[in-house]
Specification:
Order of helices and strands of chain B: HEHEHEHHEHEHEHHEEH
Structural class of chain B: alpha/beta
Strand order of the largest sheet of chain B: 2-1-3-4-6-5-8-7
Strand content of chain B: 15-25%
Largest sheet of chain B: 8 strands, mixed
Number of helices of chain A: 13
CATH architecture of chain B: 3-Layer(aba) Sandwich
CATH architecture of the largest domain in chain A: 3-Layer(aba) Sandwich
Number of helices of chain B: 10
Helix content of chain B: 25-40%
Order of helices and strands of chain A: EHEHEHEHEEHEHEHEEHHEEHEEHEHEH
Mean pLDDT of chain B: 94
Largest interface: A-B, 48 and 45 residues
Low-confidence stretches of chain A: none
Helix content of chain A: 25-40%
Number of strands of chain A: 16
CATH topology of chain B: Rossmann fold
CATH superfamily of the largest domain in chain A: Thiamin diphosphate (ThDP)-binding fold, Pyr/PP domains
Low-confidence stretches of chain B: 288-297
Radius of gyration of chain A: 21 Å
CATH class of the largest domain in chain A: Alpha Beta
Shape of chain A: globular
Number of strands of chain B: 8
Structural class of chain A: alpha/beta
CATH topology of the largest domain in chain A: Rossmann fold
Oligomer: heterodimer
Largest sheet of chain A: 8 strands, mixed
Chain lengths: ~375, ~300
């Protein structure tokens, strides 16, 4: 399916990451956005509020983030592609109904332009410390998909990818931006609508009397409906069977939650999107995401110039985590260097997957600014020893 | 041989019979209220039932969405209104109804309630007020009358409760009514009027919770309590909304308090943007032609 030209601002633009994310969403066919103002994410919805009236979209500024998250779930059942946008404190408030989205299997996108935390933290300054919250933030057990763009161009592209993944797997997809990417302005090339591939919603073709809302085939992803088409479905946040009816038994829990987890886990290799550079023969691999993947670049270049064998992995999808690839490479390399703007989140995953085969060196940063590339360089130098 | 006759229950096609029996206690007012709601749905002509959706949150009343055969959404605690808001805005052809208990709607969902009323979101909200959190074991609610006993107000409630019709009316609801669980005919009419109304319509139903509220406060059986509310209510249509407080086991003012017109959220959006941008703006909204509204009755 190709994009609707009405939402595609074809051309070369100078946009910040927030605006580019908004353009990506509109190009992806998003036509319902509910949001609540919070720095540094608000520009995303501001742009959509401005442009939506001319493409049949509706923006509503809700009373809080719990309402915003819920409204996009309702909107998705109403047949629209939907999105909400927030940052730290709002992300925390959205966790409740992110879980509902996982349980009801609602395709939608949640953007978090990360700032420094905890609590109110550094509202206008960068952080990357919500990565584990993205993975585990809502209660209960589930799997989620999260992407991390490193530039306005990527914000545009990966917002579209986020929508496509959410439709493919019927799961809310998180776009984990950071304040630096959100607020940096760069050239963004937006192709024509016919060059943008979209995944349409997997709607059932069965008649209402034969349709069961949570019956699945081997894809583990059930077909959806649009409210108001006569299917008269029931869906709930309670543990439910194929009919969508609550069933309070361990057996039903096992069947449902196992599938919710497996539909992501067993498709992880299809979902995972990483960029590898000079991995062949590397002694050390720097793994980074978002703005930090760019800050690491001068450190990597300098180390390479000095003869160190440094490879690079940039995570586009942070969740699901590329477990297999990390385990595989750990047998060949000496160490991982993981710079991130927190005190160790994704690095814990690297360490776990490396399983003692290669060292993991975290280069932490508390937030408020990006790393000094010197610190990343020093870590690489230490790692090659 | 005697022939066994299987007559269909008159509400069977409106209920998920494969989920009956329901979980509600005997003499709970929710069953009666749902019956009246279905009676109203039978008379509702603006849209086919396919275009009617129901959303509820958590609690005893939260389970209503699970028994009614409509597109039905059982959401999180307090969040039925924002979910319904998204559903309605994404799909304006739908008539969206929220069924909620008092704790769900007014405590944890209170912020959503006041803002949906302010925006005149085109949804119908039905609140079953039993003065207590019933599902979780009878805790005090923002509707519990002063001095009433609850598991978390074991010495009697000393917090001033909300008057729900006053709250709804003050925030901009276009239709506000209150009835008790035994006002079968009037409640049904109120539901039909609310469904036919464009905008935020609100009906509060005073119902007994015999298992927790009635027992703890020694008010007799659910039926005793239902009768008490019926006998001690006084119909005052158009009553001053400031006079609608409910005191413990005292007179309850019931009736239709508000019935007015205000543009809905979508109306206002369309009018404003069309006025500002003319043909550049694509009119958003209902494809279903407006059917003249029949008088309830």
């Amino acid at each position: 399916m190709k994009a609707d030209p009405k939402g595609v601002l074809t051309g070369e633009h100078y946009l910040d990451g927030d605006y580019a994310c908004a353009e990506g969403a509109m190009a992806a066919g998003c036509r319902f956005v509910a949001g609540y103002p919070i720095t540094p994410s608000t520009e995303v919805v501001e742009r959509m509020a401005l442009r939506f009236p001319f493409m049949g979209g509706v923006f509503i500024q809700m009373e809080d983030e719990m309402a915003s998250m819920n409204a996009i779930l309702g909107g998705a059942w109403g047949g629209k592609k939907t999105m909400t946008v927030t940052s730290g404190p709002g992300f925390s408030l959205m966790m409740e109904n992110l879980g509902l989205g996982v349980m009801m299997e609602v395709p939608c996108v949640l953007v978090n332009v990360q700032r420094g935390g905890p609590s109110t933290g550094l509202p206008t300054m960068v952080g990357q410390a919500d990565m584990m919250q993205a993975r585990w933030g809502s209660h209960g057990d589930y799997e989620i998909i999260a992407l991390s763009p490193a530039s306005p161009q990527e914000a545009f592209e990966y917002t579209i990818e986020a929508f496509n993944l959410s439709e493919t797997y019927r799961v809310p997809v998180l776009l984990m931006m950071d304040e630096c990417v959100g607020h940096m302005t760069e050239k963004v090339v937006i192709p024509t609508a016919d060059k943008i591939d979209l995944v349409p919603r997997k709607l059932t073709k069965l008649p209402p009397e034969k349709y069961l809302p949570y019956k699945t085939d081997s894809s583990m992803v059930p077909e959806m409906i649009v409210a108001g088409e006569g299917y008269k479905i029931h869906t709930t946040g309670l543990t439910h069977d194929e009919r969508g009816y609550p069933v309070m038994t361990p057996e039903c829990q096992e069947k449902l939650v196992r599938r919710l987890v497996d539909k992501i886990r067993k498709n992880a290799e299809k979902i995972i999107h990483i960029e590898e550079t000079q991995i062949q023969g590397a002694d050390v691999v720097v793994m980074a995401y978002g703005i930090t993947s760019r800050v690491a670049q001068p450190a990597i270049d300098r180390a390479r110039k000095e003869g160190m064998k440094v490879g690079q992995i940039k995570l586009i999808t942070v969740w699901p985590f590329p477990e297999k690839r990390v385990a595989e490479l750990s047998k060949k390399i000496k160490a991982w260097v993981v710079p991130e703007i927190n005190y160790g989140q994704v690095s814990l995953e690297v360490e776990r997957c490396a399983g003692g085969k290669a060292r993991t060196i975290l280069v932490p940063h508390g937030g408020g600014w990006v790393h000094d590339p010197d610190n990343i360089y020093k870590a690489i130098k230490e790692a090659v020893k | 041989m005697e022939q066994i006759v299987h007559e269909e229950h008159p509400m069977e096609s409106y209920l998920r019979m494969d989920r009956i029996p329901h979980i509600w206690c005997p003499t709970c007012g929710i069953g009666t209220t749902v019956s009246c709601f279905i009676s109203a749905l039978k008379k509702y002509e603006q849209r086919s039932l396919e275009k009617v959706a129901i959303v509820s949150g958590i609690g005893c009343t939260g389970r209503v969405a699970g028994y009614v055969k409509l597109d039905s959404f059982h959401t999180t605690h307090g969040r039925a209104i924002p979910f319904a808001t998204g559903l309605k805005l994404a799909n304006p052809d739908l008539k969206v109804i929220v069924f909620s208990g008092d704790g769900d709607l007014i405590s944890i969902g209170g912020n959503h309630f006041i803002h949906a009323a302010r925006r005149n979101m085109d949804i119908t909200v039905i609140c079953i007020n039993n003065f207590i959190y019933a599902m979780t074991g009878g805790q005090v609610a923002p509707t519990t009358p002063l001095t009433a006993l609850a598991s978390t107000s074991p010495h009697g409630n000393f917090e001033q409760p909300f008057s729900l019709p006053q709250l709804a009316a003050s925030c901009g609801a276009v239709y506000v009514a209150r009835w008790t669980a035994l006002h079968i005919r009037r409640m049904t009419n109120a539901f039909l009027e609310a469904l036919n109304k464009r905008g935020f319509s609100f009906v509060e139903i005073i119902t007994p919770c015999s298992t927790l509220y009635g027992r703890r406060n020694r008010l007799g059986t659910g039926l005793d309590l239902m009768k008490f509310y019926y006998d001690n209510s006084e119909i005052q249509h158009g009553a001053d909304i400031r006079s609608l407080d409910i005191e413990f086991q005292k007179k309850i003012i019931i009736g239709k308090f508000i019935d007015r017109e205000r543009p809905t959220f979508i109306d206002s959006m369309n009018t404003h943007l069309k006025g500002k941008y003319g043909d550049k703006y694509e009119w958003y909204g209902e494809k279903i032609p407006e059917v003249p509204v029949k008088a309830a009755g």
